[in-house]
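[09:14] KT: can someone run the structure on this one? pasting the chain below
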Amino acid sequence: MSTNGTNGTSHDGANGSTHQIIPLQINGKEVETSTTFDVVDPSTGKVIWKSASASKEDAINAIEAAQAAFPAWSQTKPSKRRDIMLKAAEILQSRSEELGGYMMTETGSQAAFATGFNIPTSVEMLKDIAGRIVTISGSLPVCGEEGTNAIVYKEPYGVVLGIAPWNAPYILGFRAVAYALATGNTAILKAPEFSPRCYWAIGSVFQEAGLPAGCLNVLAHRPQDAPAITTLLIEHPAVKKINFTGSTHVGGIIAATAGKALKPVLMELGGKASAIVLADADLEKAATQCALGAFFHSGQVCMATERIIVHSSVVTAFSTHLSTAISTIFPASGPAPVLVSPAGVQKNRALVSDALSKGAQLTVGSLDDSPSDSNTRMRPIVVSHVSPAMDIYRTESFGPTVSLFAVDSDEAAVALANDTEYGLTCAVFTEDLRRGLSVARRVESGAVHINSMTIHDEPNLPHGGVKRSGFGRFNAAAGFEEFLRSKTVTWRD
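[09:31] RB: done, structure tokens below
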């Protein structure tokens, strides 16, 4: 292993176009490794660059760097941490085109999702975090015994491991470490193999903002090394808490590993989000929001709409509006949406094929519509007459397919929305707010959005799921509390 000494300040090469290896970031230095892996542009199928691949030694070095940086960083004044977060927001904004380009190249996303949503939301997140840092405080409870006093301190855990996915790399990557850093923890950010350059950029932004060496360390590794490296990171005694955003399957493995080590975890996992369209809804508005919620970023969002549940009295009219919305937003004359890998296309085609073989019908789109010259592109598909016997009924598609259901009552809509192991987000469309709130209260979900799509995330709102969509909350005050633990101190007069 070797360091190149650029420290993330240059925006070319491994940081742009000269070097072809995206380095790790350990203790304030960029580290190249003899072992690398290819990073592919899903839009073209071509290798765009290589990434350094962390070894066990690199992982231990990152942990030790974070551990060594913790005593000083945990004692920094809130104003210093605030200023670094504000500076990071400023730098991120100024480098929007650069970082947006990395995201579009590595994940196949459109500019609207990269520079139009991911980066602005991340900037606002950093600003929101900066503003909350000075509010961290303990308490002075009144003890029951005369002459006994108490104070409750709020303290950081120590080294926090953040594991985030590729699909919204800046929102989810910054979120995985920014709340931990703001509350005085140090962090290790484990990057996904699909978008290591985006995660390099996160470390680069913080370093340019003045974050001290060792406070944030960024690792990437080959897919086949994931079990060994991840287990080492979780089990190391210096790592005190883990947060993970990703699939429910992998989340279960990480939670089990952390549980054996008796370490707390924060999990935001998969979803099977429903959009409920009540009989009194504005059907045109609902159809547009459902189309966006189902097919934004090719459906590769944990909050994406997977089920559209419509009152039977308006389902025919709604279907017409939905077809129009899809053809307008995702026209057949344009290129087919891109998925990050062929596996996503294969999975969605298999789900649709299984449903059709068991009696489902195509309402919008066809398996024959997707281009034959690309294995990572697939056009939107809406399937109706879906039953519990079909795989698509329960499986998170994480792609451009959605199921359309007709129900006869609000109660039936709620029951169908709740008939899933997931519970991350939901949407309800109605012109009667009282009715919408009634439905929202009965849906088993971490969030419900009335008259807007299921995809909704902003820094001042707690974000997380119920059931197998995870536990704990990112964002806002709840996000701060996740990375602080209390210490009670008593004394007698």
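[09:33] KT: thanks! Residues 1-18 have pLDDT under 50 and may be disordered.
[09:34] RB: yep, looked fine to me
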